[in-house]
Design goal:
Layout lengths: L5 H5 L4 E4 L7 E5 H8 L12 H15 L3 E6 L5 H15 L13 H19 L3 E3 L4 H10 L6 E2 L12 E7 L6 E6 H8 L3 H11 L13 H18 L1
Parallel strand pairs: 2-3, 2-5, 3-4, 5-6
Antiparallel strand pairs: 1-7, 6-7
Length: 239
């Protein structure tokens, strides 16, 4: 989820590119994104026992055939500041805690971990590398990207830019005729929108994010962007 309103702010920097243009690149994948997307595919609801595995298998197969290398990142333990937000989100995705006579209570988080374990086992069988993040998966993806160990991140969490990501891909269209993906480059965000990593951190505080869900009451996107523009103008005058 990340920063409130961030994707609409970054929309002018979005570029839709053919998936084939990613051939030869190595990308870090936030696996939790694909797992969650699979839960809401109408064609699989009530018909496929494990949609996360089916979705993972076919996406990996398609991307590898295009010459795209993948490194998957498993979600670690959520920071305490974000634990409540993550708990509520997982309950929305996978259902609330349930108790049965023969089983221990199952929370959305425990089920999510079990799903990730199944995905890891499948990746092992396919020979696809994966790593476990100490905390959030998008933070690990961004770290690998910032070090130049991968050519970009596949995630829907905009806060990956706040963690240092340079290239983010989201909104896959896996159509066989014209597969596309949205690409966001930090270099383009800086040059065209004049937003730096530090500025995006400020946006998160003012507009709200997973750590500060409500942000600053009464402060909206337009006000924040005007403030950034004003501050940038003052900085240029001082130079």
């Amino acid at each position: 989820m990340g920063v409130n309103e961030l994707w609409s702010i970054l929309e002018p920097a979005r570029e839709s590119v053919p998936l084939y243009h990613l051939s030869g690149k190595t990308l870090a994948v936030d696996l939790s994104l694909w797992v969650c997307e699979a839960q809401f595919v109408k064609e699989m609801m009530g018909r496929v026992a494990k949609p996360h595995l089916r979705n993972l298998f076919f996406r990996v197969s398609s991307l590898m055939q295009m010459g795209i290398k993948l490194i998957f990142v498993m979600e670690g333990e959520a920071p305490k500041m974000k634990a409540e937000t993550m708990c509520k989100r997982n309950q929305l995705r996978f259902g609330p805690s349930k108790k049965t006579a023969s089983k221990k209570p199952r929370t959305g988080r425990s089920y999510f971990k079990a799903v990730l374990k199944e995905c890891a086992e499948m990746l092992d069988c396919l020979g696809i590398p994966w790593v476990s993040a100490a905390g959030e998966a998008e933070a690990m993806c961004a770290y690998l990207d910032s070090l130049g160990l991968v050519d970009g991140c596949i995630t829907n969490d905009g806060d990956s830019f706040l963690y240092g990501a340079q290239t983010v891909y989201r909104n896959f269209n896996m159509s066989t005729k014209d597969p596309q993906v949205d690409c966001y480059l930090m270099a383009k965000i800086k040059s065209e929108l004049h937003l730096t990593r530090e500025t995006l951190v400020g946006l998160a505080i003012l507009l709200g994010c997973d750590y500060l869900p409500k942000g600053i009451p009464g402060v909206g996107k337009e006000q924040v962007l005007k403030l950034i523009k004003t501050l940038r103008g003052q900085t240029l005058l001082q130079k």
